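Data availability (excerpt). The following record was deposited with the supplementary files.
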Amino acid sequence: MMHLTTAPVNHDPDARCAWIAEGGAMGQLDVEAAYAAPLVSDSPAATRMRRAAVEMFARDGFGGTSTRQIAKHLNLSPAAMYPHYKSKEELLYAIAVDGHGQILDELRSVDADTAGGPEQRLQAVVAAFACWQARHHEHAKVVQYELHALAPEHYRVVAAMRRDTVDIIETIVRQGIRDGVFTVEHPDDAVLAISSLCVDVCRWFPSRTHSDPVALGTAYAELALRMVT
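Predicted structure:
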């Protein structure tokens, strides 16, 4: 049985950033089921609903979008959505679990497949993190900025997934310090800075100067390495 650490429920955006590095009053939460929950069904209908909701939440906000509007966008009746998602909040939860699950799986895979030491691993993971945030900026924007609308029990699951994502970077940085290749004096601050840089991509991407997710990932990987050496 897999257990993930989680943070206390706090719907303030600044506080959500703070617990990434500080950990907060950690408890234990069994969220194995969240990774394969029916909420993240791969059925064509459920996938279409999530995609439409991401588009509309990113454009109009969670509070500015109704389930009826999402259904209309898909040429469905509101009743047709109920077998898949019983509420708008449940739909947001599915989007959040899906997005965080994709990021977590991507970073774990990249880290496992990267040959070399902490320097190479950090660059590979940060490049993948920033690239995902850029390539899926609408999904990422919803995931980052609409978490306040989640029910407390759902927020705790997503918070645990966020903590696990940041733990990948933290593990690499601390390994680099132990190996003597990273010289950063305050690793917690470095991890917070690196994570925040990647997470913030969805807020502004694309821009006049950055429109290539891969190039942005490469640039952020170089910045991350400079922060710890």
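Summary of structural features: The domain at 4-228 is CATH 1.10.357.10 (Tetracycline Repressor; domain 2).
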